[in-house]
Write a structure and sequence with these properties.
Blueprint: E1 2-10, H1 13-42, H2 50-61, H3 73-91, E2 108-111, E3 118-120, E4 124-127, E5 131-135, E6 145-152, E7 157-164, E8 176-181, E9 185-189, E10 194-196, H4 202-224, H5 235-268, E11 273-277, H6 281-284, H7 291-297, H8 299-313, E12 316-320, E13 346-348, E14 354-356, H9 357-366
Length: 371
């Protein structure tokens, strides 16, 4: 099984300029590919293969885009492949239509050829057309790397590579663990363990408040410096926007780290199977009163992490049907209460059962499709 390894880089000032040049090239070629595909579609043409577009870029390097010679050849080639793959996923109905990458909003990253990525002892890694860069820890040597990517998270540079690792073979218990995701708490397990909502903690609420304050300051400064219909970006606005970026980064890291701790704790309990619901997050987001809270919870990321961690440890992950009434079904007698509302936090049944609705849902999920 291939697992990712992400390590921080310590580039020099000159190397950082070259890294930014590669990031700009990757974004430019991605947008160029999308523009080509859309123009071809409007003219009634068929989908252009990435091989044809790569050949066209090779020709452009000799004339109009000679600046591309300063960065690795694989940066442009992989950007073309990424854009074409995005369109293929769109045609298959697996994702939305790809959009152009913004310099300000898009993820700052680029590809490095795995064959040309060199690692040596002493915490050093060689990136093509950039040179040897010191790393935070030693990358494994003598192994095959897959899909190396260099990225920037508004503060530090990182390199991430996929490394083949053997799956863990261990004895599992006979427990079928049901997990109900929610907003009051992140996850409620059928064994009674509750993982709290980290967004309700003092630290996260304080950072959220500080973020809102900074955003209001930037908005006021834009309005005060407005000239006609144009907004003027002053040095103070640039400083505040940098602080906002770092605040978003810190909050994202806190939430992502908590999701990793939660999913790791679940798989370390060694159940033979884990059952979760197939949530339609896009439909849940239509509720304007809950959309912000749902976004912060990261239900998709929770499921993604749980999928690969269960697979790595040999645990079966079962996805319950989207319309399975886990909350409305009595976990004791099986009666379905169709008139159960969201405000009813306790499930009271005619059979005498009185239980928290989230715990009731997790127990029903643990029994999902069991003989």
């Amino acid at each position: 099984m291939i697992l990712a390894k992400k390590i921080r880089l310590y580039p020099s000032q000159l190397q950082e300029q070259k890294l930014w040049q590669s990031v700009g090239t990757a974004r430019f070629i991605y947008n160029w590919t999308l523009a080509k595909q859309e123009e071809n579609y409007k003219n009634g043409g068929k989908f252009i293969s990435d091989n044809e577009l790569r050949k066209e870029i090779t020709k452009l390097k000799k004339s109009e885009l000679s600046c591309l010679k300063e960065v690795s050849n694989n940066v442009a080639k992989q950007s073309v492949k990424d854009a074409c793959d995005s369109y293929r996923r769109f045609f298959k109905g697996l994702s939305d239509k790809p959009i152009f990458k913004s310099r300000r909003k898009s993820k700052k990253s680029f590809y490095n050829d795995n064959c040309k990525l060199k690692v040596k002892e002493g915490k050093l890694v060689n990136i093509e057309k950039v040179g040897w860069i010191r790393t935070n820890e030693q990358l494994p040597t003598g192994v095959k790397y897959s899909n190396p990517r260099i990225s920037y998270d508004n503060k530090y540079w990182y390199i991430s590579v996929g490394i083949e690792q053997e799956e863990i073979k261990e004895e599992l218990t006979d427990v079928s663990l049901g997990i109900d995701l929610g907003l009051k708490d992140l996850a409620i397990c059928s064994d009674g363990i509750v993982y709290k909502n980290i967004n309700k903690t003092y630290v996260v609420r304080k950072l959220d408040k500080k973020l809102r304050r900074l955003q209001r300051q930037v908005s006021c400064k834009y309005e005060n410096n407005k000239k006609g219909k144009e907004y003027v970006k002053t040095n103070n606005i640039i400083k505040l926007e940098k602080q906002i970026q770092l605040m978003h980064r810190r909050l994202a890291n806190i939430r992502n780290n908590y999701l990793h701790q939660t999913t790791t704790s679940i798989v370390k309990a060694k159940p033979y199977r884990v059952v979760i619901e197939d949530l339609s997050v896009s439909n849940l987001m239509k509720n304007k009163h809950l959309s912000k809270a749902i976004t912060k919870q990261g239900f998709y990321e929770f499921r993604r992490q749980l999928e690969y961690k269960c697979k790595f440890r040999g645990i079966d992950l079962v996805i319950a049907g989207r319309f399975y009434p886990s909350s409305k079904t009595c976990s004791q007698c099986g009666e379905v209460k169709k008139d159960l509302k969201l405000k009813n936090r306790y499930y009271n049944c005619k059979c005498g059962l009185s239980i928290d609705r989230d715990l009731n849902a997790s127990i029903n999920l643990s029994n999902y499709k069991l003989a």
